[in-house]
Amino acid sequence: MYILAIESSCDDTSAAVLRDGILLSNVTASQSVHEEYGGVVPELASRAHQQNIVPVVDAAIKRASIMKEDLNAVAFTRGPGLMGSLLVGVSFAKGFARSLGIPMIDVNHLQGHVLAHFIRESEDDNDQPTFPYLCLLVSGGNSQIVKVNSYKDMEILGQTIDDAAGEAIDKCSKVMGLGYPGGPIIDKLARQGNADAFEFSKPDIAGYDYSFSGLKTSFLYHLRDWLKEDPDFIEHHKEDLAASLEKTIVDILMKKLRKAVKDTGIRQVAVAGGVSANNGLRNAFRDHARRYHWKIFIPKFSYTTDNAAMIGITGYFKYLDKDFASIDLPAYARVTNQNVGQSSSHKTQS
User: Fold this and answer.
1) Over the stretch 197-241, which tens digit does the pLDDT of each residue have?
2) What does the alpha-carbon distance between residue 74 and residue 320 come to, in Å, rounded to a whole number?
3) CATH number for the domain whose boundaries are 133-301
4) Neighbour count for residue 59 (Cβ, 10 Å)
């Protein structure tokens, strides 16, 4: 059983092919055009998706060594994300599936990240979480602690009330004039700096929720004062600034996660999303595994960013349940009660 998966929620056009849940190919085309603007420009992103989607899908099918007629279903990211980008992937998936007479499977992008740990590259690749497990989902747009009861039953225990962790990193990087995207730049500099060189504000938020706006403001004000004394302060201390910023964010993330593990008693803990590529966060997970006897799951770097493989494995689970999408389902830019079944208690079901 072959599934073609398509991901186009932001600025990466990605396609993957899975056979019975085993990944055969995963092709991604990134967009460098946004770097000069310091962030993703939605109109440019959607135009680039239009250029990339046909060659990317073609490459994924060829690398899987199959014909398009062998496909049994098409899984696609329906949302959340940039509407223009999503429409390219959704429209292509609908036309492609209709032309072959095969079913479509709509996938929530965030659930794809959470389930990326189930991507298998071979038959003997069996190191996946068992349900229930906790997942720290951290990216440019989301910071959540998710209790995963099954592939289609996920409960959000806590989430950011303002900025996401990745967003805070990108904004602080921009303030320092380091470029975009800020995450990889801060990560690289942090490895060379002293994480205890500077202290920044840490929020005191009840429960499992996060807040990063105060940290961002604290970073900005401290930097402003230091630059008054030394106009070249950033250049002289950028490694220490990056390391201290990274440590502060990781400490905030892990404190809430420790509380969630203690309160739920669940010691299977995963991390997912773009920020899960950060070395400081990965090292913190390994440290917590040793100190608190957690069984941890850290994705390969290729599965941390937006990719079609995670959409494919989520689509595979839905295929087994015959949970197919109708041709008239629209894309959605934001998560709402209607598109993921989210209730006031943060319970989400696909």
Assistant:
1) 999 999 888 899 999 989 999 999 999 999 999 999 999 999 999
2) 13
3) 3.30.420.40
4) 15
